[in-house]
Amino acid sequence: MRRDRVVPAVPAPAVTRAARRRDGGAVARAVGMVAGLAALGAGGIAAGLELERRVVGSRFRTERTPREDFFSLRSDGPPVRTSDGLDLHTEIDELADHQPAPGSGPVHPELTVVLVHGYALSLDCFHFQRKHLRGRARLVLYDQRSHGRSPRAAPETCRIDQLGDDLLAVLQQTGVSGPAVLVGHSMGGMTIMNLARRHPELFGELVGGVVLISTSPADMAEHSPIRGIPGRTFSRVVEPALALLNRVPDLVTHSRWAGSDLGFVATKQLAFGSEVPAQYVEFVSEMLGEIPLEVVGDFYPAFRDLDETGSFPVLAGVETAVIGGEDDAITPIEHTQVIIELLPGADALVLENSGHMALIEHHVQVDEVIDALLVRVARNAG
């Protein structure tokens, strides 16, 4: 078992009366910034002018990193009918249709890897993992409801229980016969935890392994991505603020991405923890920009009410790996630490200088963890 540096959990400070008195100013700041928050999924940023000049300036510098063909990996897959009648977009990379990348690792013809993306993204966020695993295992990807190429869902169905049901439908309708490895990023990890809690019979039989990346089991309402604003204050104001902004969605959408400098700076600060190539930032920014503001608001209550801690006795019965970034502004490293403590048998990788999009920012290390888990699951199935 490999265990990289693990950061000890840090308890959240108590909110004092003085802090409560300052909530009024915090609320005003939160409302003023919520358009930027909505653009980035779970929260927003306050970027200083110095940071903005540095980041936007770097965008135009000649990069040594070879250009990645983001959004280019495509394959066919059947529409998956959900319990409420939506047809989710899926893509399946069959083993026989692709050659493994040179030096990418062993082939596991018996395994199916299901990649489950996060909030305000799409299946394209697994670009590097998909490229790394193609031709080495059967891959199943899908766009969560109201995301990517999947249809818009009713707001009241945009909850984690429904996402767990959707994942179950994907497993049932895409020919997954096991052993399967489920890889979830952010909201995708929450989806997998929900499936484990509500359908424990699948784990150890159909599902042989789980990788949780930059995710959280509970207490998201305690966290604010805006420095200086307590989590409870942020949670209290963000929903009415989103509702207000939904009255002028065209204005907000345009202001989020007009000229794309604001979107670029915001994405850089909130999604990454190091000086990544500008093309990585643009890739994530483009995915975020495709999500309607209304969808951002539809899903927010799902995080406020999140509690999937009951999944861990089930997950402990299969091979697991947990990955988190020290500088994750969306699902803080303390949440990763909780998962590590609840899954003592898991491989654990805590990445320095990594934000929420670790699967892109540090894709080589993330791929290595997935590879090691695939070997273990294949060995167990042998």
UniProtKB/TrEMBL annotation:
Entry's transmembrane regions: 26-49
Keyword annotations of the record: Hydrolase, Membrane, Transmembrane, Transmembrane helix
AB hydrolase-1 domain mapped to chain residues: 112-362
One family name in Pfam for this protein: Abhydrolase_1
GO MF annotation, one: hydrolase activity
Protein's UniProt name: Alpha/beta hydrolase
Species of provenance: Desertihabitans brevis
Source lineage: Bacteria, Bacillati, Actinomycetota, Actinomycetes, Propionibacteriales
